[in-house]
Design goal:
mainly alpha, globular, 535 residues
């Protein structure tokens, strides 16, 4: 009798929640974008998550394996309660949103929902698949097979739904970018581990080494991550790269190149340290070499692939990549220059001018200056008239100038504090070895950035006043044209509803040049674009 009463109460709660959700969603669902869809999709994601993890927990209780310990009654009861409550809500919201996707195909809620599902369940699937392969290839514990089945079923179900109604909002690339990130990170870790095993095995034939890396674990990670990355990233994309995909590509290119350069700098530091400072045996000293080479090779491969994806043309993503590397190089140069100066003029217990430390800091300074000069020279070789007004350049010059300016101001405050302590004879132990050079180097960087920015502003300044104008664009996808139009332009986009009129970066520049500063109607189709004046 008590169990029946509990089920009735639970059923009443479920019915009440569904009724409340329906009422709230109906009130908030007005407008062409489906105003209540984001909330509905967030609730749907929560319900799907509760139901799927509850089902996985039931599977673990039903097939506990060798690692199972403890009583299952509490876990089963909790999982059943979550499953009974979440499943009806998930079914209701899924059917509701499936109908609304036909009415509002560009609603952002579908994209947000798929991104959340990808982040949670693709990660869970990768972990479950890894546990199975690690068990097969090495001495890992017996896996939970039901986790792989449940999470794999959720991923496959949503993949089918995505193919039926692909997301069409401005951020429609986000779910696949999330999946690409999961696959790439897992693949890179696994590949790095395999390379480390190979190099460590080779190195151990030359000299005795400590450690015995496990190949099976790294191979399991790689075999899980590679298919995910291939399917999410290498599979043909439905249209040209949008802002999110371009942002991900240039960020990974920056991370890959930074990793490769950092590994190379570590190898150079270790080599110089052995030649100039260390007296240990070569075999013991260079034990770091297999790990450094593995990290550098993986970083170089990741950088090479994503840099090619950015393309040879000097588009905004390419500029963002180059200016990001310039900022990294300049930032490390400021830090290393400050540390080297402090070692030269202010040795103390905090900063010791040991030979190996000096070698490391000097090498970092050399690499940092090299990176900054290389990428800044590429920017200076580009036509100044076209480069001066671009968003990545302005963000680098102004944004990084703010950062270095704040650092310089903080260092100046620290310098003045030390000076006032000495003038007042307060007995402070602080020195100017760090604050003063940091103030100087960061201040010089700020001055350089602001001076170049001022020159750019003078170059693009015009005495004539450009009146605002409107550009009406009829296309399938506007691409990045909004970022290259003059600030006086007001852009209105009319979507065609097909995939033949997509604006890529090259076409965007041609449209801006053809429009000039006049109100225009631009029609984009499979034959290119046509421009007509409009009032």
């Amino acid at each position: 009798m008590g169990g029946l009463l509990a089920l009735l109460i639970l059923g009443g709660i479920v019915v009440g929640v569904i009724a409340m959700v329906r009422r709230v969603m109906e009130k908030r669902a007005g407008g062409p974008s489906g105003g209540g869809d984001v909330i509905a999709y967030l609730l749907l994601a929560l319900a799907i998550g509760v139901a799927a993890f509850a089902l996985a927990e039931l599977g673990r209780a039903a097939f506990p394996g060798d690692s199972f310990v403890g009583d299952t009654s509490q876990r089963v009861a909790t999982s059943l309660a979550g499953l009974v409550v979440a499943t009806p809500i998930a079914v209701f919201l899924w059917r509701r949103e499936a109908k609304r996707r036909l009415v509002y195909p560009r609603a952002v809620g579908w994209t947000v929902y798929l991104s959340l599902i990808e982040a949670v369940f693709m990660t869970s699937l990768v972990i479950a698949a890894y546990s199975i392969l690690n068990w097969l290839l090495s001495d890992g514990r017996q896996p939970d097979w039901t986790d792989f089945l449940v999470f794999g079923g959720v991923v496959v179900f949503h993949e089918i739904a995505t193919r039926r109604t692909p997301p069409r909002s401005d951020g429609s690339d986000l779910p696949r970018v999330v999946g690409s990130a999961i696959g790439l990170i897992t693949t890179a870790i696994g590949l790095g581990g395999i390379l480390y095993w190979l190099l460590q095995t080779l190195y151990s034939t030359l000299t005795a080494t400590a450690g015995d890396p496990e190949l099976g674990t790294w191979l399991a990670i790689f075999l899980v991550g590679a298919p995910v990355w291939l399917f999410r990233w290498w599979r043909p994309w439905p249209d040209v790269a949008g802002a999110l995909r371009n942002a991900w590509t240039f960020l990974v290119a920056v991370a890959g190149l930074s990793t490769a350069v950092g590994a190379l700098a570590g190898i150079v530091i270790g080599t110089l340290d052995y030649l100039l400072a260390d007296t240990a045996s070569a075999g013991r000293h260079f034990e770091f070499l297999p790990a450094a080479l593995a990290i550098g090779i993986v970083g170089g491969l990741v950088w090479g692939h994503h840099r090619r994806r950015l393309g040879p043309e000097r588009t905004d993503p390419v500029r963002a990549y180059e200016y990001s590397m310039s900022a990294i190089g300049l930032g490390f140069a400021i830090g290393a220059g400050t540390a080297l100066t402090a070692m030269a003029f202010g040795p103390s217990d905090l900063v010791r001018p040991d030979a190996d430390v000096v070698i490391a800091v000097a090498t970092i300074l050399g690499f940092a200056l090299g990176v900054w000069l290389w990428f800044w020279s590429k920017a200076t070789r580009a036509p100044r008239e076209m480069e001066a007004g671009t968003t990545p350049r302005r963000f680098y010059l102004v944004g990084f100038a703010v950062v270095t300016g704040l650092v310089s101001a903080g260092a100046l405050i620290g310098t003045l504090v030390v000076l006032f302590q000495r003038l007042l004879d307060s007995g402070g132990d602080d020195t100017l070895a760090i604050q003063a050079p940091l103030f100087i180097f960061a201040g010089l960087a700020t001055w350089h950035l602001l001076r170049v920015n001022a020159q750019d502003r003078d170059l693009i300044a015009s005495d004539r006043v450009v009146t605002p104008f409107k550009v009406t664009l009829v296309c399938s996808h506007p691409g990045s044209i909004a970022t290259v139009l003059p600030k006086e332009a007001k852009l209105a986009v009319i979507y065609r509803g097909d995939d033949v009129g997509i604006v890529d970066d090259t076409m965007a520049s041609e449209i801006v040049e053809a429009v000039g500063h006049t109100s225009s109607l631009v029609w984009v189709d499979e034959d290119g674009f046509r421009v007509a004046p409009s009032s």
